[in-house]
């Protein structure tokens, strides 16, 4: 029998935006929230704050097997999934431009390959989450909201020379959302949208800062979960919210070619 509460799954849910959204959902008394995160200590701490309407599942979103196992466990217990917040992501941890070899004169000494863990978690993890989420949405009761929100970033729109690999991953996240949104909705009734946090720099913020964030910040997420939006990209800059549309086609030829691929 399906749970009386709506069921949410949040990747990267042990801290930052993920945990903040989880707290809002639990406070509404309408949701049971499942947090997926690689940080076991943070996850355990998070559910101690959230209470009995929450569960924690140690998960590596870059591993399809790990992610699938967590979703399978959740669905076996709840018999439905209503909302998935594909929020997990990490920044790049090294200076992309720093010299990578001990020699600047020997052309045969090549630098090591770039560290692309950021892409594995941020982009591949989001893709994995969408694939697994849609599978379980298809097996959930039709009356559920079937909402899938992906955390993109302001660098999905603006290039950041300081974080080029992270910029690439977040550009990919936004492009992927826009590519699948129409098909996911038409085929399975799943509403896919993206949240693009801007000047609210979540990785640098402690819980005491989250406690001071005005109510308006949470409006975009709640709108995307409970509303009718499909394929929307909502950018937050400070506490302002902007709907960022896809750029117009350059000419009729581009519109014809890309229109056929929708």
Automatic annotation (TrEMBL):
Against PROSITE patterns, the record matches this protein to: ADH_SHORT
Q: Which GO terms describe its molecular function?
A: oxidoreductase activity, acting on the CH-OH group of donors, NAD or NADP as acceptor
| Record's keyword annotation contains Signal | no
InterPro entries noted in UniProt: NAD(P)-bd_dom_sf (IPR036291), Sc_DH/Rdtase_CS (IPR020904), SDR_fam (IPR002347)
Highest taxon listed in the record's lineage: Eukaryota
Ranges that cross the membrane: none
Keywords associated with the record: NADP, Oxidoreductase
Pfam families to which the protein is assigned, alphabetical: adh_short (PF00106)
Question: Where does this protein have coiled-coil stretches?
Answer: none
Q: What are its GO cellular component terms?
A: cytoplasm
Family (UniProt): Belongs to the short-chain dehydrogenases/reductases (SDR) family.
In Swiss-Prot or TrEMBL terms, this protein is called: 3-beta-hydroxysteroid dehydrogenase
Q: Per the UniProt entry, what species is this protein from, by scientific name?
A: Calycina marina
């Amino acid at each position: 029998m399906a749970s009386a509460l709506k069921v949410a799954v949040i990747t990267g849910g042990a801290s930052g935006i993920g945990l903040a959204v989880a707290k809002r959902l639990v406070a509404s008394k309408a949701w049971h929230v499942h947090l997926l995160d690689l940080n076991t200590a943070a996850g355990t701490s998070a559910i101690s704050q959230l209470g009995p309407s929450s569960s924690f599942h140690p998960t590596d979103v870059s591993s399809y097997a790990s992610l699938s196992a967590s979703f399978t466990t959740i669905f076996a217990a709840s018999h439905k999934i209503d909302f998935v917040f594909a929020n997990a992501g990490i920044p790049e941890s090294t200076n992309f431009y720093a010299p990578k070899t001990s020699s600047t004169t020997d052309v045969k000494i090549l630098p090591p390959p770039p560290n692309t863990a950021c892409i594995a978690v941020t982009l591949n993890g989001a893709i994995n989450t969408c694939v697994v989420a849609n599978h379980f949405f298809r097996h959930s009761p039709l009356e559920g909201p079937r909402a899938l929100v992906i955390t993109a970033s302001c660098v999905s729109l603006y290039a950041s020379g300081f974080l080029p690999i992270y910029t690439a991953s977040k550009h990919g996240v936004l492009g992927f959302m826009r590519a699948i949104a129409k098909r996911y909705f038409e085929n399975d009734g799943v509403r896919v949208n993206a949240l693009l946090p801007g000047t609210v720099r979540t990785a640098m913020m402690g819980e005491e800062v989250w406690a001071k964030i005005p109510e308006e910040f949470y409006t975009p997420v709640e709108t995307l979960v409970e509303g009718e939006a499909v394929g929307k990209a909502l950018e937050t800059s400070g506490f302002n919210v902007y709907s960022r549309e896809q750029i117009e086609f350059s000419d009729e030829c581009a519109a014809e070619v890309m229109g056929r691929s929708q």
